[in-house]
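sorry for the late reply, my laptop died twice this morning and i had to redo everyting from scratch. anyway the thing you sent over, i finally got around to it. pasting the sequence first so we're on the same page, its 312 residues, then the predicted structure underneath. double check i copied it right bc i was rushing
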Amino acid sequence: MEDKILGIHHITAIAGEAQRNYDFYTKALGLRLVKKTVNFDDPGTYHFYYGNENGTPGTILTFFPWTHVKPGRVGTGMATDIGYAVPKGSLDFWTKHFEKYQVRFGQIDEQFGEQILRFEDPDGLRIQLIEPKVEDTRTPWETSEINKDVALKGFHSIVLTLRNIKPTASILTDIFGYKLLQQDGNRYRFVTDTVENAAIVDLVEEPEVTHGLVAGGTNHHVAFRVKNDEILMHFHDKIASAGYNITPKIDRNYFFSLYFREPGGVLFELATDNPGFAVDEDVNTLGTSLKLPAQYEAERATIEKVLPKLIQ
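ok and here's the structure:
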């Protein structure tokens, strides 16, 4: 058994209006809605999954859109910036494209020797487009406006902002198998060699910054990828033995999960590759119909009345 963490599985954030969220991620960013379901703990709220054609782990950004959610506050103890890999030379396209869609973005910059373009979604979620040093060979989802030469490939990295990076770094290295690659000031880059992509976690140490508030426009949790249930439960025992409070295995229909809060305050999830997003829809029709977990199917009519109307 290879008891390995395979990089990032998915990242989950909080949004406001559902239609605005859908329009931004499918049109302005050109991602595919691969699953339209509900928050398992709050079935009156959508849970959207965006990614590539198949919803491959390492490409999936998910949202809970609450219409009247209060704005969050970026700070310590949270995942603050999502990095997407894009093809080399594509950032000029993205600046023009963002101007067309009135997206808030900054100047093209450089970080760890890679070109980077920072921007925000309509709720203020901080995202980066990054041209990686090594070509990302993943096949992206394409749209009429965004072709494969410029399209988002999937995750490049996630940034965790912390008052003290040492306890979190220990989780990454001692339990998850990451290694420190390089440091630039207060930013420390950790990588895993188990996968080629979605393999980077940057820890930024900000001892004087106020603790963040998880609400609209912020990240709720980061999910790390494992191959299957057996390896998932291996990590359950490993994390519990290290003294952390970790949940039992939870069935999320499209993967199995564990959750625990790492010492810096960030909610971590471990999620399996199996069974995947095609378990209840054909790949060609992913994201086109509302999928409910079995426990809510009897309440479908009521749930559909409560959920905001979504034009796809």
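The two ends are 42 Å apart (CA to CA).
thats about all i looked at so far, will dig more tmrw
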